[in-house]
Write a structure and sequence with these properties.
Layout lengths: L13 H7 L3 E6 L4 E4 L1 H7 L3 H5 L3 H4 L5 H12 L4 E9 L5 E8 L6 E8 L1 H19 L3 E5 L6 E4 L1 H6 L4 H4 L10 H17 L1 E9 L5 E12 L5 E10 L1 H23 L3 E6 L2 E5 L1 H7 L18 H17 L3 E10 L5 E13 L2 E10 L1 H52 L8 H27 L6 E4 H15 L4 E6 L6 E4 L1 H18 L4 E10 L6 H7 L4 E8 L6 H6 L17 H11 L3 E6 L5 E8 L25 E5 L3 H13 L3 E5 L2 H9 L7 E5 L7 H8 L7 E6 L3 H6 L9 E3 L4 H9 L17
Parallel strand pairs: 17-19, 23-24, 23-25, 25-26, 26-27
Antiparallel strand pairs: 1-2, 1-5, 3-4, 4-5, 6-7, 6-10, 8-9, 9-10, 11-12, 11-15, 13-14, 14-15, 16-18, 19-20, 20-22, 21-22
Catalytic activity: ATP + protein L-histidine = ADP + protein N-phospho-L-histidine
Protein name: histidine kinase
GO molecular function: ATP binding; phosphorelay sensor kinase activity
Length: about 775
Amino acid sequence: MQNERGYIERPFDAGHFFELVPDMLCRMSIEGKLLQVNAAWQKHLGYTSRELLSMSLYRLLHPDDRSSTKREMERQRSGQRTVNFINRMQSRSGDWLWMEWNASPAEDGVVYAVARNITGRMQAARKTRLLTDAFQHCTHGLAIEDPDTRRILACNPAFAGLHGRTVEEMTGLHLMEFYPDSQKDVVSSCLLRSAESGSCKFEAFKSRKDGSLVPVQVDIVFVRDEHGDPLYQIVTAEDITERREAEKALRESESRFRAVVESAPDGIFIQTGDTFAYLNPAALRMFGAAKEEEMLSRPVVDHLHPDFRERVLERIRKLNEERIGLPFPEERRFLRCDGSFFDADVSAVPFMHDGQHGALVFVHDTTERHRAEEERLRLRQDLFQSQKMESIGRLAGGVAHDLNNLLTPILGYAEILDGQFGPDDERLQDIRAIHGAGVRARDLIRQLLAFSRRQSLDFRVLNLNAVVRGFLPLLRRTLPENIAIKEALAEGVVAIEGDIGQIEQVMMNLAVNAQHAMPGGGQLSISTEMVAAGLLPRDVLDEIGPVDCVALSFTDSGAGMDRDTLERVFEPFFTTKEKGSGTGLGLATVYGIARQHNGMVAVASTPGEGASFTVYVPVSSGEPVSSVADAATLFSPPVEGGESVLVVEDSAVVRSFVADALRHYGYRVSEADGASSAKAAIKDGSCCPDLLLTDIIMPGMNGRELYLELRHLCPAMRVLFMSGYAASVLEKEGVPESGVGHLHKPFSVKDLIEGVSGLIAGPGGKIKKPKPKI
């Protein structure tokens, strides 16, 4: 049908609008069964119409909203209209959507309803609520101000409370009202700069309502529109009273800490990463640095002795990564800037420095403690050594007299025989060999006595190479033939100051030690070399200081030694030999002689690879003297004499030798085997000698007592004493070592004749020296 305007009129079709409405329209039963839905349901929930019509509304509802929705459906049943009812529905994707419902009362058990998806609105409302809550409940003061008028548009309670006012009292007030006059210019300047940069931050005092001042930190941010025009400014104000008090306390604490640290006697340093970040004055002194800048940023391990570096690097790793400190002191060895080292006890705790993890390290120098411990140990060892040497001395003194009595005729007759054979006589070399062996035996006895009494040594400038070459023939005769001796001596003269007998003792002891290390034979290498001070081993340098040295080395191809043996090898009486096979004094003697020569002995050995002993002795700048006695210079004076000598000696072999030697050189000799026979010979008038040559220690009466008794009978008689005992024994007998004529057994023919002729003259018997005082 066409109306008056020419349009065709058709019946109203609501179905077209049903599908076009963007809200979710539906018909459903009062029990929630969906009977009809529009296309918006699929759009919002993701389900097809067919799927939805097979569902109940309650299946889509959030569990917490089902009971409230059922109550609304009951209201529909009673004819009431539903307006703006809200619940949640789940989409196919699993999201929960907020829905706002409007529904007409049920007719014939059918409800007509429309649901609007308000999820976005709810989220916005929640966000707004969150911002409002944050604004209201923030403990920092927040305010919004008009950028043109500088008046407060809104503020939170914290901002108002900071000023001692309520929120209502703050609204509309001018920003500058809260600053004292003394700070308004500074604040205005900050605000002007912030208007240009968009923000500013400053600290100032604000006035409260009661007139009191409170320190605050103020942050201002300008908010602009899309055209850059200012909309408002957000002001944050924080009460910094506690912070300033904390900062003041921190400054005072840091000042106290620095005062304590700077004046601490122990070294304290801060380490960040693996480098120095701070050192107190004591630490700088320990490391030998004049200024802190010399140490800062330098790796800590560069100032650690190599023996400790690996262990300390692991400690640094634990400090940096696991924050594990070192609460109990551990010993470390540090290197100073000049390369020397010092020992210290170290403890450390994790520490933050300039925002970096690190450690606060405490260093207690134990150098003096170690020195005291070493001194205590040295004194104890000296006491032990002294006690042992006292025993050796008593033993040596007991046997020395008998040994010297035996050596006296051996040496004396060898000298006499030396002058009785021509240079081409084959027996001359044998005689001189006998004499040489006797001289060495005499020297060994003297060394034993000197060592036991700790007497001063006979130091002379020696050519060590010459000493070694002169001693090698004896070593080759001493060691078994299955030990090959190889020598490698430094070129030229290597001069030292030393006692030749002691140096030879060192060589003999080291050679014997090598022999015991090679029971099946092997090679012994003997070498000398010059060693500059800078090339000395650390342990040697520590003992003798930076001096140029001559190194005498004995290296064997024997069994070697383990670490435990190396640590004790120079201890007196320590031996690895079977019981009864060694005294344990050989290497201890080497050590003692080396130290007496201002030197040191070092040993290096590995089990199965032999051992090397090296004696370091300082170089001498003097001119070496001859170190080897010349057998051809045996005493052979012209035969003169005629003076009478009474020889009193209880040892028949010594008495016989002395008498023969004196007769050989022209003296008239009478003999007595003791004090009794000597007195008898003079008292019966059979002799009145020019010289009394007497032993000191004899049975019954000693030589001094004998002389004092006989000089009344022969006033012109002089006296010459002889003895094989040590000086300490003679002093007990009342005979001083100096001031009187005294021959020490074993003596040579030269010593004997010079001693006798020094007291009496030639054939006339004229007295050459005054009577000795006894």
